[in-house]
Specification:
- By secondary structure, this protein is α+β, with helices and mostly antiparallel strands.
- The termini are far apart.
Length: about 70
């Protein structure tokens, strides 16, 4: 089971991690910036309908696995 999955709103998977190497939403955005070529301040990460703040600790989002959605 993946600890973290990030997908676009159409369901395309853009990032999966088996381990919990990311501490904050900002860490995830930096990884996505490298992979997608989109600046981290031009993207939003969401959990359900909630837009996640850059400095939010991922542990505050609940138990693993986490599924986040990327909006650019």
């Amino acid at each position: 089971m993946k600890a973290l999955t990030v997908s676009t709103m159409d369901g395309s998977c853009v990032l999966t991690k088996d381990d919990a190497t990311f501490d904050t939403v900002g860490d995830v955005k930096l990884a996505l910036q490298d992979r997608r070529g989109v600046h981290r301040f031009q993207m939003r990460l969401m959990q359900r309908e909630r837009v996640l703040e850059y400095d939010l600790n991922l542990a505050a989002l609940g138990a693993l696995p986490l599924r986040l959605h990327l909006v650019t």
